[in-house]
Amino acid sequence: MSVLDKAEPSKMSSIESEGYLKISGTFKSVYSNNITILPYLLAGSTDSKHFAELTDNIYRVSPFTIALKEASGIHGVNERVSIESFIKGVNFYRSLFLNAALVPKPST
After folding, report:
1. Where are the alpha helices (DSSP H) in the chain?
2. CB neighbours (10 Å) of residue 43?
3. Which residue among 70, 73, 76, 95 is least crowded, i.e. fewest CB within 10 A of its CB?
4. Minimal CA–CA distance to 7: which of 42, 35, 32?
5. pTM for the predicted model, two decimal places
6. For 50, which DSSP code?
7. Residue 39: is its pLDDT beyond 70?
């Protein structure tokens, strides 16, 4: 057995950055203010590795809720999410883009 491709692990992203705060705030506004946002280790490779030199923080986000019975279909035949989850996910990204476009007013 030989290794065909390898990559260094991505660096940790701050949970105190403006980007993280906007992402976590958007989750709370779309889903519930009572949820806890926790960072986790993504054990797969993503295209985000191509952007590592462009920013100090990269966040991989999935706003789709998946029922346990749907989890076995991830990356499989007939992969899907519920319509409700899809709509909430689209609303999340719409809200995140709008929140990201908001520029804080300079303090006086």
Report:
1. 18-30, 68-71, 83-101
2. 5
3. 76
4. 42
5. 0.76
6. G
7. yes
